[in-house]
Amino acid sequence: FFLGSTGKLYVGGGGTFIVEEYTEWTEVSVATFGGSLFIQANETTFEDTASVTVSGSATIFVTERFIIWNSCKVYFGMGLTASASEFLLANTAELHILSGGWKMNVTGSMTTINNGNGFISGSGTFMVGTFWT
């Protein structure tokens, strides 16, 4: 699933994306979900000034990389549960968790927060495999 260029996706309720390869939200695209968001994919990337807003909670299960980078802004209203082999928050990207908690399970070799910004309300758990920067 690819949402790019100036694409816009507005969903009054929740969204479910179960894809074999990847979901990519990029460039100046806008995605808004009135409910919760569920993603199951090989890789999920939010990047390049994209704006993604989820009023409810987000559940993101990826087998490889979960990436938030390059000036994009991601808002999860009611918490985040995520599992990935690698997690990256970088290059002035913003991750906002407005209420509720968060649970991130990184099973692989890399978790990097480098020049990225996390604004998280509520308690959370961050489980990291072998490498943290």
What does this structure look like?
This protein has 133 residues and is mainly beta. Helix content is 0%, strand content 62%. The protein has no helices and 16 strands. The chain has strands at 2-3, 8-11, 15-18, 22-25, 30-33, 37-41, 43-46, 51-54, 58-62, 65-69, 73-76, 80-90, 94-97, 102-114, 117-120, 124-128. Strands 1, 3, 4, 6, 7, 9, 10, 12, 14 and 16 form a ten-stranded parallel β-sheet that branches. The chain is globular and about 35 Å long. The relative contact order is 0.16. The mean pLDDT is 88.
Question: What is the secondary structure topology, with strand pairs?
Answer:
Layout: E1 2-3, E2 8-11, E3 15-18, E4 22-25, E5 30-33, E6 37-41, E7 43-46, E8 51-54, E9 58-62, E10 65-69, E11 73-76, E12 80-90, E13 94-97, E14 102-114, E15 117-120, E16 124-128
Parallel strand pairs: 1-4, 2-5, 3-6, 4-7, 5-8, 6-9, 7-10, 8-11, 9-12, 10-12, 11-13, 12-14, 13-15, 14-16
Envelope shape: globular
Which regions contain 5 or more consecutive residues with pLDDT less than 50?
Answer: none
How many extended strands? 16
What structural class do the secondary elements suggest?
Answer: mainly beta
Distance between the termini: 30 Å
**Rounded average pLDDT:** 88
Q: Which range best describes the helical content: under 10%, 10-25%, 25-40%, 40-55%, 55-70% or over 70%? A: under 10%
Name a few traits of the molecule.
single chain; 133 residues; mainly beta; ten-stranded parallel β-sheet; six-stranded parallel β-sheet; 0% helix; globular
Short description:
The protein has no helices and 16 strands. Strands 1, 3, 4, 6, 7, 9, 10, 12, 14 and 16 form a 10-stranded parallel β-sheet that branches. Strands 2-5-8-11-13-15 form a 6-stranded parallel β-sheet, with no helix packed on it. The relative contact order is 0.16.
